[in-house]
TrEMBL record:
Pfam families: PALP. It is an enzyme of class 4 (lyase). GO terms for molecular function: L-serine ammonia-lyase activity; pyridoxal phosphate binding; threonine deaminase activity. Keywords: Lyase, Pyridoxal phosphate. InterPro entries: ACT-like_dom_sf (IPR045865), ACT_dom (IPR002912), ACT_ThrD-II-like (IPR044561), Ser/Thr_Dehydratase (IPR050147), Thr_deHydtase_catblc (IPR005789), TrpB-like_PALP (IPR001926), TrpB-like_PALP_sf (IPR036052). It comes from Hyphococcus flavus. This is Threonine ammonia-lyase. Signal peptide: none annotated.
């Protein structure tokens, strides 16, 4: 078989016309608060507002619309537990194309249910993506289905590139676009469009440092790939073959960001811009936070590529961010084991306008002398300066205090 062709900028323009009216043209908003905080002039493309919460719908729809009727009649198949599954299922349903999605048995029930509600047959198989992908290959051959790759397909790449077409048409002249990279479909498609429509714009990729697959593919590096990343949507162990060729030619560089910066970026988008994103969607802002001087006074476009995040994970991230900023703190206070000590500590905190939200008193499980005990106090403050004042007053009253690590 001939090798798949590389898509062109014309393919991206054609895709934009093809999917117009079938895909939400998401807003491009000026992030004034983030701009003030970072020094960059930041514009956000809100792909988290797509029906399924991610940009993946674009490539899936373009692929379906370019397929011959005979192939559509046979049906499509994909291996995915994430945004690609729902994007393909949604648009296959709208076009009356049978869709089968293979998911690992470990996939959360909510994702399985949502994919089924979009009309797809869900096959649960294997305990990880690789096992599910192997089952997909088996079913493709057995049933004569058409496999839709999540990123390494020319029509999928062209569809994803329509994000850049809209940004360039709707926005200012960008000095740079920072684009998340997993397998590289979004990056490759947007790079094609940007190079054609706005050649002076620097196109910069960003990956989670735990999954530097595209960076390794381009520079021959041997960085470790794998781990538990917040940006699971771009946690791809091997970059695409087509996508890496396009990225090599058109992308200036790739920035790697660590987990703490990803957490901070996600929290800032939520707290400052009131925008809910998943970890991958926060990667562009994380790149700016990692190198603020580089983007100072530059007009930068960021793609919030998805907003599908587990509520419990989001809650944990926001609480951790409050702890890092000093607005939430757990203090371990040593005190004599005698009546009235709890009240004295609480009074000192209250006199400094601190709010006690949780108390734990430890007598048995402690290595302190028998007549001593310790108390864990979780407090709500106005920030680091306020927390420092509370600590100073406790210590001035003779209490030994430590802040629990976060």
């Amino acid at each position: 078989m001939d090798a798949p062709r590389l898509p062109s900028a014309q393919d991206v323009r054609d895709a934009a016309e093809r999917i117009a009216g079938r895909i939400k043209r998401t807003p491009l908003v000026h992030a004034r608060k983030l701009s003030a905080l970072t020094g960059a002039d930041i514009w956000l493309k809100l792909e988290n507002l797509q029906y399924t919460g991610a940009f993946k719908e674009r490539g899936a729809l373009n692929k379906l619309l370019t397929m011959p009727d005979e192939e559509r009649g046979r049906g499509v198949i994909a291996a995915s537990a994430g945004n690609h599954a729902q994007g393909l299922a949604r648009h296959a349903q709208s076009l009356d194309v049978p869709a089968t999605i293979v998911m690992p048995v470990t996939t959360p029930d909510v994702k399985v249910r949502q994919t089924r509600e979009l009309g797809a047959e869900v096959v649960l198989f294997g305990h990880d993506f690789d096992e599910a992908k192997a089952k997909t290959a088996e079913l493709t051959k057995e049933r004569g289905l058409i496999f839709v790759h999540p990123f390494d397909d020319p029509d999928v790449i062209a569809g994803q590139g329509t994000v850049a077409v809209e940004m360039i048409e709707d926005g200012p002249d960008f000095d740079a676009m920072i684009i998340p990279i997993g397998g590289g479909g979004l990056m490759a498609g947007m790079a094609l469009a940007a190079n054609d429509m706005s050649p002076k714009t620097d196109v910069i990729g960003v990956q989670a440092a735990l999954f530097p697959s595209m960076a390794n593919a381009l520079d021959g590096g041997a960085r470790d790939t794998g781990g538990n990343t917040l940006a699971e949507g771009i946690a791809v162990k091997e970059a695409g073959q087509l996508t890496r060729e396009i990225v090599r030619d058109l992308v200036r560089e790739i920035t790697l960001v660590d987990e703490r910066i990803l957490e901070r970026a996600l929290s800032m988008l939520m707290m400052e811009q009131k925008l809910l994103v998943e970890g991958a969607g926060a990667a562009g802002l994380a790149a700016i936070l990692a190198e603020p001087s580089r983007y100072k006074s530059k007009t930068v476009g960021l793609v919030l590529c998805g907003g599908n995040i587990d509520a419990r994970l989001l809650s944990m991230i926001l609480m951790r961010d409050l702890a890092r900023s000093g607005r939430l703190a757990r203090l371990r206070v040593q005190l004599l084991d005698m009546p009235g000590q709890l009240v004295k500590v609480a009074t000192i905190i209250a006199n400094q306008d601190g709010n006690v939200i949780d108390v734990g008193h430890h007598r048995t499980y402690s290595d302190l002398p028998a007549k001593m005990t310790c108390m864990d106090v979780t407090i709500d403050t106005q920030g680091q300066d306020h927390l420092d004042r509370i600590l100073k007053n406790l210590r001035d009253e003779g209490y030994e205090v430590e802040i629990a690590a976060y």
